[in-house]
Write a structure and sequence with these properties.
The complex is a heterodimer.
Chain A: E1 2-6, E2 19-23, H1 37-40, H2 52-61, E3 64-72, E4 75-76, H3 78-86, E5 91-98, E6 101-106, E7 112-119, H4 124-140, E8 143-151, H5 156-169
Chain B: E1 3-8, H1 17-28, E2 32-37, H2 43-49, E3 55-61, H3 69-80, E4 88-94, H4 104-117, E5 121-127, H5 139-154, E6 160-163, H6 169-186, H7 191-194
Parallel strand pairs in B: 1-2, 1-3, 3-4, 4-5, 5-6
Helix pairs in contact in B: 1-5
Classes of the chains: A alpha/beta, B alpha/beta.
The structure holds flavin mononucleotide (FMN).
Flavin mononucleotide sits at the interface of chains B and A.
Amino acid sequence: MKLILSDRPLNLEIEEDDVEFIDLSSLKINNCVGCFGCWTKTPGKCVIRDDAVKIYPAIAKSNKLLYVSRIKYGGYDAIMKTMLERAIPIQQAFIRLVDGQTHHVQRQVALKNAVIIAYGDIADDEKDVFKKLVARNALNMNFEKYRIIFTAESQLEQTVSDEVEKWEAL
Amino acid sequence: MGSIMILNGSPRAPKSNSKRYATIFSEKCKCKTEYFNISKTNHIQLCGKSEEFSDILFVFPLYADGIPVTLLNFLKTLEENPPKNKPVVSVLVNCGFLEYSQNNTAVSMMKLFCHQNGYRFGSVLKIGSGEAILTTPFKILVNRKIKKLASSIACAKYCILQTTMPISSKMFLKASTAYWINYGKKNGITKEQMETMNIEE
Ligand SMILES: Cc1cc2nc3c(=O)[nH]c(=O)nc-3n(C[C@H](O)[C@H](O)[C@H](O)COP(=O)(O)O)c2cc1C
């Protein structure tokens, strides 16, 4: 499955059936309250029954993943970050070693080829922090490969369309 | 000697590990401290209050490799409502995994906030195995480092500190497995149930 998760609406022409586009800003997603219910009470399910419970299964299933997010302080801005925090039901509480470092065991989560499109007015030091962040995400979010594209908001739709076309050409 | 505003950026602040770390900090600190949970509704009030302090200590957990959205949202409000006299910003961050270095990106984000908004960046304490360390004999290591953190801020001799359980990754794997099995057990959930590969099914 191919998934585009965006923190704002985008005008895209998507021709393929197996591409799902989700605009997080149009959904009701509360922030994670850190209760660990998804690991220890109702494993694999978040106890907060809002729109996020439709999104993390899609993240888990996708093998091609496109995240589109504004950047703030070198990280994802609040809309995307809220969703990423709510996605921990796709992992188990239990820990494994990845390259000698401790990380969580994934549930049924496809290996991902991820493209992260980071937009906004992003300074070089901010880009460096974001690159470090995504490198860490790759270990925790089952990215087999990833690419980061920095772009201005005015170029965003074009940048996303170009990436989707690359998927469609595959 | 200055005064320190402690701001807890955990989304479960009232019942958080961060609160426990903050309590130890207040006990060890020789200068005046005042503690606040960051909630959804008190951002503006906290921004105003921050003017009364020489230092802010942000205490928070690592969330998805970065700062929790609770803290991010507060920083955005602080950016819009800066105090007249900007306190020095220090950080006490804890993560669930063993390696304290996994907190580095969150620390870089806090530095970026300071750089972009004209705050001096102060001390850092990075804690690994922060979910469980206070329930083990290694609590003593945390107490020591928090004491150092407190005196570094009180004397304005800012520094970078870190601590974690001094055990191998394999040992940590065993210990954390036991910790989580016990957590589930309290909710009447077995290890096998916790290990389900199903998501929302
Ligand atoms: C949504 C969520 C995301 C988390 N992400 C990470 C992470 O990326 N790395 C890590 O080591 N621990 C992670 N943790 C674990 C917390 O950092 C750890 O449990 C911490 O002790 C919580 O502190 P608190 O009680 O002060 O909130 C995460 C926990 C939650 C609930």
